[in-house]
Design brief:
With about 400 residues, chain A is of the alpha+beta class. Chain A has a 6-stranded mixed β-sheet, with helices on both faces. In chain A, strands 2-1-4-5-6 form a 5-stranded antiparallel β-sheet, with helices on one face. In chain A, strands 14-13-12-15-21 form a 5-stranded antiparallel β-sheet. In chain A, helix 4 packs parallel to helix 5. The relative contact order of chain A is 0.11. Helix content of chain A is about 20%, strand content about 35%. Chain A is globular and about 65 Å long. Chain B is mainly α and about 240 residues long. Chain B is about 80% helix and about 0% strand. In chain B, helix 3 crosses helix 6, helix 4 runs parallel beside helix 9 and helix 8 runs antiparallel to helix 11. Chain B is globular and about 70 Å long. The termini of chain B are far apart. The chains are: A alpha+beta (about 400), B mainly alpha (about 240). At the A-B interface, strand 7 of A face helix 7, helix 8 and helix 11 of B.
Chain lengths: ~400, ~240
């Protein structure tokens, strides 16, 4: 388990960074607008910059202590960094780039061929960086950092230099990293959905200060943070398994099995998803319709019964969290909608959304629990939860 | 070759001395220029502009002035030269060493500039990446910074070599015009022009001088092309 203690102060011109916190999660996302000090924080952790005063400790190794005059240079910190545009050495082939940091590898470092396989780098080894696409470059950069056998991997805006299609290509690789290599990862980004693809745990940075930290779903209902998170494009995120997929109907069924009852979500068909595979799904709160009763004859594929677990009024809009058998879904509705619509905490409610509202990416289950068997073999899963719930549902008076 | 067969010993000497001075000048300037180029490109310190100005001074001053100032400093009765001669018996004026020193001082700004510019072009992010991958400062410089600056270093080397081939004023003032020791090509051409009947020799040497300069230019182009090819080798 990662244990990173940061207490750092740094001033440069008008900007001052003053952060004091402890991170003990295996994956964490550092989120903040451009110029908020995210990258500076990363430089402080990796040792590329020195704070003016403070203390930085990772798993009992003191990296920096201004009182004791300790400063460990970056080459001694064993921290892998994936920079914004990869920073692959232009005068070396991909292979030489990959092996650059391999000298200091310990025995726990990942195997060279497994890194090359997982990141799909076999065909690129003899090429020079200038002949790689943005996504390929980032994959090599990730491989290079992994092969140096780091105790922590820092990703600095790994998607910012590549276009949207490459992003889709790179995302699954990044999602798999933590599970495949059992390595703590911190991702820095100004793009919230990118972070959420990897982790739920967020550190919110603003003007060089730590505004809040915690699980995204918690922060979304916290006074100072909800505005920032909703405007940054917050998503409800959950992990699940593919239990059915059909090109004919165009639907992939995802089962979320951690709650008391399995929840089935219908997502658009994706050729790359196979039955039993772990996925991470994201749903935008604006895409969700709330209804007091189930709706018949509607094209929206997902109708889930849940209980309102949290409400947060943000002025022009209201955030509502619905607990669907352990799956927490956030819905964002306008103030007018919230006035027209009677709701209170603890009330039964139906959550409606189109299959298209669900964005799935393959990943390994980050909870670490190996997936036992596909849900489709499970008796309780044969019926869709929609039908089952509908049978027990009595419309309110 | 015919052209060498027709050269007198005196003329041949001039060519050999010129080449020796130019090669030594470029080779000795390399570490010095690398240091100052790196210092000016990467470090912030008090008096940086002064260091910058002193290095660039020979570029804007008349070479004869540079040579004269060097003579005042390094001459046997000069500021430093006096002690060097008295204590160590080292003479840094009116000999072959003096010719090399004059060339170094005059060509240094060109070499430093070339290296500085190419260092400034390198994204410090590459060095940061190397550090996080476990390479110390020295290793990073040798494995990353220097190879990336190679085109600049090479062009600096050729510039220094070529400038030294053409050096006249400072050499004449500090090293004198001693046949067989400090008489380089330009000095030899000048000397032949001043003696009656020397036009033929002056002409031959001028032709050689052109060939040498063109050769240096061709080599630099060839190396630059090789640098580019090495990078584009695979596609």
């Amino acid at each position: 388990m990662l244990n990173l203690e940061i207490d750092a102060f740094l001033k440069q011109g008008d900007f001052a960074l003053d952060i004091s916190t402890t991170i003990n999660r295996d994956t964490a996302g550092i989120f903040g607008p451009s110029g908020s000090g995210k990258s500076t924080l990363l430089h402080l952790i990796s040792g590329l910059r020195k704070p003016e005063r403070g203390r930085i400790v990772l798993n009992d190794t003191v990296f920096f202590d201004s009182k004791k005059k300790i400063y460990l240079p970056p080459e001694k910190r064993n921290i892998g960094v994936v920079f914004q545009d990869g920073k692959l050495f232009p005068h070396m082939t991909v292979e030489k780039n990959l092996m650059f940091g391999a000298r200091r590898r310990g025995k726990d470092a990942p195997e060279v061929h497994s890194v090359i396989n997982i990141l799909n780098l076999n065909k690129l080894l003899k090429r020079y960086p200038e002949h790689l696409s943005g996504g390929e470059r980032q994959r090599v950069a990730i491989g290079r950092a992994l092969l140096s056998g780091p105790q922590l991997l820092l990703l600095d805006e790994p998607f910012s230099a590549i276009d949207i299609n490459m992003r889709r290509e790179l995302l699954p690789f990044i999602s798999r990293l933590h599970a495949e290599f059992d390595l703590p990862i911190m991702i820095i980004s100004h793009d919230l959905p990118d972070i959420l693809q990897l982790t739920d745990y967020l550190l919110l940075i603003r003007n060089g200060e730590l505004l809040a930290k915690g699980d995204c779903a918690e922060l979304a209902f916290k006074q100072d943070c909800s505005h920032i998170l909703t405007s940054a494009g917050i998503r409800s995120c959950f992990n699940g398994n593919v239990c059915q997929t059909s090109a004919d109907t165009g639907i992939t069924t995802i089962c979320h099995c951690t709650g008391p009852e399995p929840v089935h979500i219908y997502a658009p068909y994706q050729a790359n998803l196979e039955v039993g595979e772990s996925v991470r799904a994201q749903i935008t709160p604006q895409d969700i319709i709330l209804s007091a009763a189930p709706v018949e004859y509607i094209s929206a594929q997902n109708q889930l019964k849940g209980i309102i677990s949290r409400i947060s009024n943000l002025g022009e809009k209201t955030m509502i969290e619905v607990d669907v058998s352990g799956l927490k879904l956030m819905a964002e509705i306008t103030t007018k909608a919230s006035q027209d619509f009677p709701y209170h905490k603890g009330a039964n409610i139906w959550v409606l959304f189109k299959a298209w509202a669900v964005n799935c990416n393959p990943c390994k289950d980050t909870s670490g629990k190996p997936f036992k068997k596909p849900c489709s073999e499970d008796k309780t899963c044969t019926q869709s939860s929609t039908e089952k719930s509908a049978r027990f549902f009595t419309p309110p008076r | 070759m015919d052209i060498f067969a027709t050269l007198t010993e005196e003329e041949l000497n001039a060519v050999v001395i010129s080449l020796k001075v130019a090669l030594l000048c470029a080779a000795c300037s390399f570490p010095v220029s690398l240091f100052f180029g790196w210092l000016l490109a990467r470090k912030q310190f008090r008096g940086k502009s002064l260091v910058d100005a002193v290095i660039h001074l020979p570029l804007v001053m008349p070479p004869v002035t540079v040579g004269y100032l060097l003579l005042l400093t390094l001459g046997v009765r000069g500021l430093i030269g006096e002690y060097l001669y008295q204590w160590f018996g080292i003479r840094l004026a009116f000999n072959f060493t003096a010719a090399v020193i004059a060339s170094i001082v005059v060509s240094l700004p060109l070499f430093v500039r070339a290296i500085r510019l190419s260092l400034e072009m390198i994204d410090p992010g590459y060095e940061d990446a190397a550090r996080t991958l476990g390479a110390g400062k020295a290793k990073t410089f040798i494995l990353i910074t220097l190879p990336l600056a190679l085109p600049g270093v090479l062009s600096g080397f050729i510039l220094s070599f070529a400038r030294s081939l053409g050096e006249f004023g400072a050499t004449m003032t500090l090293a004198g015009n001693i046949e067989g020791e400090t008489r380089t090509l330009p000095l030899a051409i000048y000397s032949f022009m001043n003696i009656p009947g020397g036009e033929g020799a002056a002409m031959r040497l001028a032709g050689l001088s052109v060939i040498l300069s063109l050769g240096a230019f061709a080599i630099s182009e060839y190396l630059a092309a090789r640098c580019r090819r090495a990078k584009n080798a695979e596609s």
